Recover the amino acids of this structure.
C-alpha cells in the first residue's frame, strides 16, 4: 500500500514537471483536496451515524 501511494506521488510530480507546472503548488493543491475530501467523508459519516465510537 505504501508503494502505491509513493508511486501516485511520483506520478503526480512527473506529470507536473512534464507540463511545466510548479510541483510544489501541484502537491499543495492535491493534498488540500485530499484533506477536504477526508473531512467531508468524516463529517458525512458522523451525520449519518456511521462513525465508529472511540
Amino acid at each position: 500500500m505504501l508503494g502505491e501511494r509513493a508511486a501516485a506521488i511520483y506520478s503526480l510530480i512527473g506529470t507536473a514537471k512534464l507540463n511545466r507546472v510548479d510541483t510544489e503548488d501541484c502537491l499543495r493543491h492535491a493534498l488540500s483536496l485530499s484533506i477536504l475530501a477526508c473531512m467531508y467523508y468524516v463529517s458525512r459519516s458522523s451525520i449519518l451515524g456511521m462513525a465508529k465510537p472511540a
Observations:
- Residues 2-47 form one domain.
- The mean pLDDT is 79.
- The helical segments are 2-18, 23-47.
- The CA atoms of residues 41 and 47 lie 10 Å apart.
